Amino acid sequence: MLCCIGESDPLQAIAKLKELGVKATQLCPWTPEQLTSEYAAKVKAALADAGVTPTTQFIGFPEESYVDIAAVERTVGFLWEEKLAERIETAKKTIDFAVAVGAPHAAAHIGFVPRDKASPKYQRLLETIRELVDYCAARGLTFVFETGQETAEEMREFIEAIDRPNVGVNFDPANMILYGKDKPIEAVDVLAPWIVSCHCKDGEWPTEEGKLGHETPLGEGQVNIPAFIAKLKSIGYKGVLCVEREGGPDRVGDFLKARALLEKCKAE
Ligand code: MG
Question: How far is ligand 1, taken at its centre, from the CA of residue 118, in Å?
């Protein structure tokens, strides 16, 4: 993933991907200043020059915090009522950006889906996401849910409630563990019909109430990466294996080790 390579400037990060021989990348959320058609043209040209294909464009917002469960509940996705109109606007601009650079998917953490389906909060989230899914559909894009903040069954139920064909899942096996929500290998089966992309990320289960678990370099956490790749193969997954590394002092070193591990798993 572009922002996981240890370069803060996206154009330099794309040059770094070229150096590393990376052929495809997901794109992280852009700052409000970057969300323009001029900047999208620059990113598109840089990707073409580097021979890197953009796959999934992530939607995100400046105030989002992943420091603990309470912060995620408060700040992530489309549940913050006062910011909802602004966020829908940003999401649509990000979808336009995805179209401009040629990414076929727009993805987001939508926030914790309320459990009470009759609640106004649940209904509002459903309507908001439908609006964005339809905005994607009109532009030939798939709207993609990143896994993590709910069990696979809960995500499946919400996707079915959205009731639109252009929806998918970006399956992040580590998030299921980090949020203490589900067993990732089994969860692949539940979400298999919708998985269009994935994050190859690893981590350890939370040990403290209200906290997230710890992310680790790929292969060093509790996902069981060889079993995850074997499971993706078994469902016929043909998408990109996208390395995501959100912490640690040596992003490039961790990426290179992750790529070697994935190549070994793919060959098995
Ligand atoms: Mg992820």
Answer: 29
